Amino acid sequence: GTLAEFIHKRGNSLLDEETILHFFVQILLALHHVHAKQILHRDLKTQNILLDKHHTTLKIGDFGISKILSSKSKAYTVVGTPCYISPELCEGKPYNQKSDIWALGCVLYELASLKRAFEAA
C-alpha cells in the first residue's frame, strides 16, 4: 500500500517518534539517491510513497512527472500536488531539488500529525 493509506488507517493514533524517524530516514536516503542522479521527483507526497506489507520498508514511486536536470539548471514547469508544492512553485519561479525537500518536510509533518501541512483550495 501507500504511506497515505497507512496514515489514514491510523485514525487519531499518532505514530511514535522511532517509527516516524525510521520512515523519514528511508525517504530522505531515497530522495538523496535520486537527487545525486540529478533527478527531480516533482510530486513527492504520501500517496507516492510505497510501504511494504510489514510496514517497515518504504520506497518512492510514481516518477511520471520527474525531470532530469543538468548539474546547475532549474526547472520552470509548474507540476505536482498543490498541498505539497513549494512556495517558489506557487509563485511560478524556477526551482530545483529544494522543492522536493519542501515536499519531504510536508510528508514529515503528515507523519507526525496524521494531517496534511496544507490544504488546497
From TrEMBL:
Annotated GO biological process: animal organ morphogenesis
GO molecular function: ATP binding; protein kinase activity
InterPro entries noted in UniProt: Kinase-like_dom_sf (IPR011009), Prot_kinase_dom (IPR000719), Ser/Thr_kinase_AS (IPR008271), STK_NEK (IPR051997)
Domain of life: Eukaryota
GO cellular component: cilium
Keywords: ATP-binding, Nucleotide-binding
Pfam family of the protein (one): Pkinase
Transmembrane segment boundaries: none
Gene3D superfamilies listed in its UniProt record: Transferase(Phosphotransferase) domain 1
Ranges where the Protein kinase domain occurs: 1-121
UniProt-listed PANTHER family: PROTEIN CBG16200 (PTHR44535), SERINE_THREONINE-PROTEIN KINASE NEK8 (PTHR44535:SF4)
Name under which the protein is recorded: Serine/threonine-protein kinase Nek8-like
Organism: Notechis scutatus (mainland tiger snake)
